[in-house]
Design a protein that fits this description.
By secondary structure, this protein is mainly α. The protein has helices at about 70-90, 95-110, 115-125, 135-145, 155-170, 180-200, 205-210, 220-240, 270-280, 290-300, 305-315, 320-325, 370-390, 410-420, 430-445, 450-455, 460-465, 470-485; strands spanning about 5-15, 45-50, 60-70, 265, 285, 330, 335-340, 340-345, 350-355, 365. It has 18 helices and 10 strands. The termini are far apart. Helix content is about 50%, strand content about 10%. The chain folds into 3 domains: about 1-125, no CATH class; about 135-255, DNA polymerase, domain 1; about 265-480, hpI Integrase, Chain A (Orthogonal Bundle). The strands form 4 sheets. The protein has a 3-stranded antiparallel sheet. A 3-stranded antiparallel sheet has the order 6-7-10, with no helix packed on it. Belongs to the 'phage' integrase family. It comes from Amycolatopsis tolypomycina. GO terms for molecular function: DNA binding. Keywords: DNA integration, DNA recombination, DNA-binding.
């Protein structure tokens, strides 16, 4: 069991030197071995070479010591080292690192090694017998994630994915207090190199190479920023832990592209024409014009999920908020709904949970058309309840499957794309239909604060970053309004040409 973290061997050496160069002969001294190749018992002393567990920075730790009168004495020291490493192995990398440090220290000072039984007993009892056992990055990430008991399922899945795919494989072996900016930057360099390899494969003349990366996605700046955010949060938690004595967060000092959310762009006729010609979207976030939203909803009318698509398009609900909306949070008399829950996917499995953030829990005013749609949905659902009879599974949701069970969010997404294709509309994501609600508000003259509250953004900066350039005509109207504030005597004219 110890071979992975410890290995050792014994050999003989002497102090004989070459008569001309005066360099030690080492293993080449003819007196060290008999004619039959066995070690001489009358010349030289015994040494050992040991490979201890790697240092905190991953560097190998090879140690040699000598002067032993017999091979048995040298081997006894090796066996004791191996037993100490074996005692630490069940307790993980931090214990192995500490054992390596302890053995290294004793070899340098000449103090005797502790008894393996004593160390094993202390480790099993959970004591910090080996001094301040700073965990490795991998061990701390696991501890940090286990302590985050109040995380939303999707957030925990995201953190777990970041740790499993990149943080642990590339940084996990470093001791927490030895992690540097260079280590973290190296991980992001590896991500960039992976991107380059994928792009090169896509451009290859070899169809097999192109096929090998089909469906493989590169990592954009925003994705790298999310990985950095996970690592930074974990290291900040380590800084707050007084037992660790960590004072520096290298993830905060790595330079990365900003990864700012892309500006939402409107599907203007010019952009639609270019998309039809090239198949390329101008931006990852594209928004339909009010006319295109209307065409979509006209095609969606009569669909079993129409009420949810209408709520997203008009009132900006998130997909999980729409799928998880219960009737008890709908007040048709007061024409409002309250967002208190969400039905979201964690991996593939959907589950009920709280809204995305504190700002996501909000009250939303309803227009008359939306109230009419919800009233019609009540009547439709009552008919479904009667048809299902005893098979109806009551969950109290606004939109369900035919038997009353919750609607899987992915089915809503699939229905959205089928309807959009049938309407021959340029491509947007279902989430971009929510952006369309903001577009309608801005086109109607609402200010950004109102749009922020409608969408449940945690900061108005998010709203501004995403939507300030959605409608070109709004920017033009703003410029005209600003110019009209400045008093002028008459029409401003350029001086005549000389």
């Amino acid at each position: 069991m110890t071979q992975q973290h410890f290995s050792g061997s014994t050999f003989k050496r002497c102090s004989c030197k070459h008569p001309d160069t005066r360099k030690r002969l080492g293993a080449t001294c003819p007196k060290l071995k008999r004619r039959n190749g066995t070690w001489s018992s009358e010349h030289g002393t015994w040494y050992f070479q040991a490979e201890l567990p790697h240092r905190h920075d991953g560097i190998r730790r090879t140690r040699r010591r000598g002067g032993y009168a017999t091979q048995t004495l040298a081997q006894d020291v090796l066996d004791k080292m191996a037993a100490l490493v074996e005692a630490a192995e069940p307790h993980g990398g931090a214990a192995l690192l500490a054992i390596g440090d302890l053995i290294d220290d004793r070899l340098q000072t000449g103090e005797p090694l502790p008894e393996p039984e004593e160390i094993a007993q202390q480790l099993n009892a959970g004591t910090r017998a080996l001094g301040n056992q700073i965990p490795t990055v991998a061990e701390w990430l696991a501890t940090w994630l286990a302590r985050r008991r109040k995380l939303r399922g999707g957030t925990k899945l995201s953190y777990s994915s970041h740790i499993r795919l990149w943080l642990e494989p590339y940084l996990g072996h470093y001791r927490l207090d030895a992690l540097t900016v260079e280590h973290v930057a190296g991980m992001f360099d590896a991500m960039a190199e992976r991107n380059d390899a994928i792009l090169a494969a896509r451009a290859s003349d070899d169809p097999q190479i192109r096929k090998s990366v089909r469906g493989v996605r590169t990592m954009g700046a925003a994705t790298m920023q999310r990985y950095r955010a996970t690592l930074r949060a974990a290291l900040n938690a380590a800084i707050r832990d007084p037992k660790l004595n960590i004072t520096f967060n290298p993830a905060s000092h790595v330079e990365l592209d900003s990864g700012k959310r892309p500006k939402a762009l409107l599907w203007t006729p010019e952009r639609v024409e270019r998309w039809k010609r090239t198949g390329e979207k101008p931006s990852r976030v594209m928004v339909w014009t009010p006319e295109q939203v209307g065409r979509f909803l006209d095609h969606a009318e009569g669909h079993p999920y129409y009420v949810l698509l209408h709520l997203i398009a008009y009132r900006g609900l998130r997909r999980g908020e729409a799928c998880g909306l219960p009737w008890w949070d709908v007040d048709l008399t007061a024409a409002s709904i309250t967002i208190t829950t969400a039905f979201v996917q964690v991996g593939w499995t959907p589950e009920f949970g709280e809204p995305k953030s504190e700002a996501s829990g909000r009250s939303i005013a309803l227009d008359n058309a939306t109230v009419d749609v919800l009233n019609a949905q009540k009547q439709r659902q009552e008919a479904l309840r009667l048809a299902a009879g005893a098979d109806w599974a009551e969950h109290g949701l606004v939109c369900t499957e035919l038997d009353g069970s919750p609607l899987h969010p992915a089915k809503l997404t699939d229905a959205f794309h089928v309807i959009a294709d049938a309407a021959e509309l340029p491509p947007v994501r279902l989430h971009d239909l929510r952006h369309g609600a903001a577009t309608l508000m801005l086109a109607a003259g609402a200010d950004l604060k109102v749009v922020q509250e409608l969408l449940g953004h945690s900061s108005i900066a998010i709203t501004a970053d995403t939507y300030t350039h959605v409608l070109p005509e709004l920017a033009h109207e703003t410029a005209e309004a600003a110019a009209s504030i400045v008093p002028r005597r008459g029409q401003h004219q350029l001086p005549p040409a000389a």
